[in-house]
Design brief:
Helices cover 24% and strands 42% of the residues. It is built from 3 helices and 10 strands. Strand 1 and strand 2 form a beta hairpin. The chain has a 4-stranded antiparallel β-sheet with strand order 4-3-6-7, with no helix packed on it. A 3-stranded antiparallel β-sheet has the order 1-2-5, with no helix packed on it. The protein has a 3-stranded antiparallel β-sheet with strand order 9-8-10, covered by helices on one side. By secondary structure, it is of the alpha+beta class. It is elongated and about 65 Å long.
Length: 160
């Protein structure tokens, strides 16, 4: 009868060990923390861009390369940038995370120059349309309209 107790104890220890090992998981997964993924969005008005990397979680520094030789490093995820020449640019964001690791992502932006023109009329003259100037910057186009189109004394509509 003694020999029955030993196998029972042995069997109990084996079953307990199996449950213990089966309930363990890989602790490395828990220590890894959030993933270091980089992302950004942008909006633009002609050549004026607002870039936002708020979707990049746990970053502590952002280095923006605008694809034309200009680069900005900052601790906030948003930046405004103005392109003065039309063209296609690759914007690259390098983010540094709290754990010291870095990651990058890039997106293409297309900057197209717009031109401002005036369509003017007056009782004395039938009016006409004339070109004021071209720019990638909305405020410059607005200045063309205010300075040239509205100063003519005609009733003018500025378009760009």
């Amino acid at each position: 009868m003694k020999w029955l107790r030993f196998p029972s104890k042995f069997l109990f220890i084996m079953i307990l060990s199996a449950f213990t090992f089966a309930s363990c998981n890989d602790d490395d997964d828990e220590d890894a923390g959030p993933s270091n993924e980089v992302c950004f969005t942008f909006t633009n008005d002609i050549g004026e861009f607002d870039f936002d990397a708020g979707c990049t979680i746990n970053a502590v520094n952002y280095i923006w390369n605008f694809g034309n030789g200009d680069e900005i490093s900052q601790i906030v995820p948003t930046v405004q940038y103005v392109y003065f020449e039309e063209g296609n640019y690759t914007v690259t964001l390098l983010a540094t995370f709290q754990n010291g690791q870095t990651a990058t992502t890039s997106q293409q932006v297309n900057v197209v120059e717009k031109c401002a023109s005036c369509s003017c009329t007056s009782p004395e003259q039938p009016g006409g349309t004339f070109l004021l100037g071209c720019s990638t910057i909305p405020s410059v186009l607005e200045a063309f309209c205010n300075a040239d189109c509205n100063a003519s004394g005609f009733v003018c509509n500025c378009n760009y």
